[in-house]
């Protein structure tokens, strides 16, 4: 019962600088054929070989699902991050061969919705670019509210407004503008579904207000795009494979396992899909759970860990891998 | 070399039969001499040439007659085909999947030409030659799901994925083992499986759901399920129970061989690209006991499986009325010799 995705051999057809922080990458199939059809909200995992370090980062597909001649992703440079975005910004060139996964959608539209209300923060705009393209072709009702730091960093803000007119609203932090959340949430027709993609603080804020205003949880959808956080190095024993490995400061536990030749299943690499869930055999120390998959009770119990994003500090940890 | 399609019936005079080649390719579901529920899901990859797993969507000698039987069921009861409004996109996904798979696997029987949204579909066995616009419902005589599944063997359930569950929000169900789409439509995975005994306690559905939610595009999965049917009847629905239920009382030692059929479902699970839904094709294969015992191994094994089956499972599968008669008949084909591992005939 193996899970996971099929890989696609692609070439970087083009790289476009969107603004100071963001570059867009265009991928085409190396054999010249069409890429698989996908649904708005899907991501691909981009595989990179950064010297000795393999990096596998998920990025939302932002191109129109109606055009599968190419896939595009937009990558925000994270100077304090672990290096995946820097690698893409600085080391990847047009014409380069790369490997990406088949699309996986963990942030799907609810097709029953009478209307889709979308709230984006910063680079969280990317899945909405694909979803609005899909909805507009089908005649679906949507409204997009997009919070940005400055006009210069409003990736695709202008394009979206010219494409969809008044259905798109922009809010600039540097002008003191803020999404009028309570008013928006109170004014929606019955059957509206709410989608949030942005920083954790924004997701928590919107979910909290929606709950307080009586929105059913089933109508509120969100996607965390948090990457694994760096942390102190630690040592782990993998009982099933009989290996003891060191997890580096800039490495996730999942990446360290993969580097050691142990391949747990994965899809999102961001703590939401549940695929890499791993049983703890024994431990002496503290878990730093960063996932959104396990419940709070499970976090406290310490019998499971999500190695894609979570870490450990202490004397010893033995996992069933 | 094309398939020679049989002209046969699944009702009234029940002229259905398998050719010797089709007996050999029957998807016998027991890999050992006993049976218990398990999460027996595996990747849906190509199997041996000539087997029902050779192609992703199998078309066999019963194709034309099965489609005629489906048309009869739908004419009597249109509610066997239903699609909630949000499932139309998934219907187009399914149409694309079935047309491309058939045209690729059986080019002598089916062809598909695509020019952007303008598609041309030719189904030679059923005499269909249609041009339509992909995505435009008005250009087809039926909705996309109904159009293509009137041309595809097996039942199809289209499932919406949301809230960490799967929802039976569309389907066409005319060859089913005693369940009703009209009853199950709109239910989630746990609700529609609620009647199955023992499996819930074993946590099977929780694990199966977790697996299915993560089936990805380009990586379909499959499993086999089985039951038994008296007479080669495809439509054993609750709606028509009055027509087939009483057949169970007609089994005698003299007629077991041609009346009792092993019914195997090849269920596969596919992620649909545009809708992010799933489709479960449930393909039914029938084989009479006379046909089955032409394989000595299958005869021995089926005898042992039916003899040792837990009573709850036998009752759920509807075997109780004729189980003793069947075991007695099968015992004459079981000399007690060991059986080889695996599903194959010998």
Please, could you describe this protein's structure?
- The complex is a heterodimer of chains A (321) and B (346).
- Chain A has 321 residues and is α/β, with parallel strands linked by helices.
- Chain A folds into three domains: 7-105, Beta Barrel (Elongation Factor Tu (Ef-tu), domain 3); 115-224, Rossmann fold, CATH 3.40.50; 234-319, Beta-grasp domain (Ubiquitin-like (UB roll), Roll), CATH 3.10.20.
- In chain A, 19% of the residues lie in helices and 35% in strands.
- Chain A is built from seven helices and 17 strands.
- In chain A, strand 9 (142-148), helix 3 and strand 10 (168-172) form a beta-alpha-beta unit.
- The longest helix of chain A has 13 residues, at 126-138.
- The two termini of chain A are 16 Å apart.
- Chain B has one domain (20-37, 50-331).
- Chain B has helices spanning 20-24, 63-76, 88-105, 144-149, 181-184, 189-192, 204-213, 241-244, 256-259, 289-292, 296-308, 311-316, 323-331; strands at 42-43, 81-83, 110-115, 118-123, 128-133, 155-162, 165-172, 221-230, 260-271, 278-288.
- Chain B has a seven-stranded antiparallel sheet.
- In chain B, helix 11 runs antiparallel to helix 13.
- Chain B starts with 19 loop residues before the first helix and ends in a 15-residue tail after the last helix.
- At the A-B interface, strand 7 of A face strand 1 and strand 6 of B.
């Amino acid at each position: 019962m193996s899970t996971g995705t099929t890989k696609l051999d692609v070439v970087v057809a083009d790289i476009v600088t969107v603004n100071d922080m963001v570059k867009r990458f265009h991928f085409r199939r190396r054999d010249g054929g069409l890429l698989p059809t996908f649904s708005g909200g899907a991501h691909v995992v981009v595989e990179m070989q950064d010297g000795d370090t393999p990096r596998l980062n998920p990025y939302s597909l932002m191109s129109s699902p109606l055009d599968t001649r190419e896939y595009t992703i937009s990558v925000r440079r994270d100077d304090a991050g672990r290096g995946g975005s820097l690698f893409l910004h600085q080391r990847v060139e047009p014409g380069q061969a790369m490997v990406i996964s088949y699309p996986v959608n963990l942030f799907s539209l609810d097709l029953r919705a009478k209307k889709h209300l979308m709230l984006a923060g910063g680079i969280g705009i990317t899945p909405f670019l694909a979803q609005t393209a899909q909805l507009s072709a089908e005649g679906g009702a949507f409204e997009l509210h997009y919070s940005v730091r400055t006009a210069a960093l409003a990736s695709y803000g202008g394009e979206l407004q010219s494409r969809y007119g008044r259905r798109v609203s922009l809010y600039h932090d540097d002008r003191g503008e803020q999404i009028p959340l309570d008013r928006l949430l109170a004014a929606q027709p019955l059957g509206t579904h709410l989608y949030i993609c942005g920083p954790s603080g924004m997701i928590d804020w919107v979910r909290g207000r929606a709950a307080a205003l009586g929105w059913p949880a089933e109508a509120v959808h969100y996607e965390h795009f948090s990457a694994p956080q760096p942390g102190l190095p630690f040592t782990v024993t993998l009982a099933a494979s009989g290996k003891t490995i060191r997890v580096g400061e800039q490495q996730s536990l999942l990446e360290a396992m993969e580097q050691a030749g142990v391949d747990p299943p994965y899809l999102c690499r961001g703590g939401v899909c549940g695929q890499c869930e791993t049983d703890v055999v024994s431990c002496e120390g503290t878990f730093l759970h960063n996932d959104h998959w396990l419940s709070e009770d499970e976090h406290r119990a310490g019998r499971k860990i999500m190695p894609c994003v979570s870490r450990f500090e202490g004397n010893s940890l033995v996992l069933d891998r | 070399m094309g398939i020679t399609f049989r002209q046969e019936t699944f009702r009234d005079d029940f002229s259905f039969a398998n050719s010797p080649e089709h007996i050999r390719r029957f998807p016998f579901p027991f890999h050992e001499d006993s049976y218990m529920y398990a999460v027996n899901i595996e990747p849906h990859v190509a199997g041996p040439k000539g087997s029902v797993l050779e192609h992703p969507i199998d078309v066999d000698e019963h194709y034309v007659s099965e489609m005629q039987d489906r048309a009869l069921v739908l004419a009597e009861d249109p509610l066997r085909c239903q699609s909630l409004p949000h499932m139309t996109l998934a219907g187009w996904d399914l149409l694309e999947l079935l047309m491309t798979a058939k045209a690729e696997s059986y080019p002598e029987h089916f062809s598909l030409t695509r020019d952007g949204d303008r598609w041309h579909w030719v189904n030679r066995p059923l005499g269909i030659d249609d041009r339509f616009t992909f995505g435009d419902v008005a250009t087809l005589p039926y909705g996309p799901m109904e159009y293509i599944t009137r041309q595809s063997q097996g039942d199809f359930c289209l499932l919406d994925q949301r809230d960490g569950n799967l929802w039976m929000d569309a389907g066409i169900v005319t060859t089913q083992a005693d369940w009703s789409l009209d009853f199950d439509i709109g239910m989630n995975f746990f609700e529609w499986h609620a009647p199955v005994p023992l499996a819930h306690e074993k946590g099977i559905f929780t694990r199966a759901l977790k697996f299915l939610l993560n089936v990805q595009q380009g990586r379909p999965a499959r499993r086999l399920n089985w039951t038994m049917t008296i007479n080669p009847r495809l439509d054993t629905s609750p709606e028509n129970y009055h027509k087939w239920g009483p057949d169970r009382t007609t089994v005698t030692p003299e007629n077991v061989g041609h009346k009792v059929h092993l019914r195997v479902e090849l269920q596969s699970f596919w992620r649909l690209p545009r809708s992010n839904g799933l489709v479960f094709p449930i393909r039914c294969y029938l084989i009479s006991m006379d046909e089955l015992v032409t394989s000595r191994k299958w005869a021995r094994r089926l005898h042992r499986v039916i003899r040792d089956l837990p009573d709850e499972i036998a009752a759920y599968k509807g075997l109780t009325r004729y189980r003793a008669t069947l075991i007695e008949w099968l015992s004459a084909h079981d000399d007690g010799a060991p059986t080889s591992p695996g599903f194959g005939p010998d």
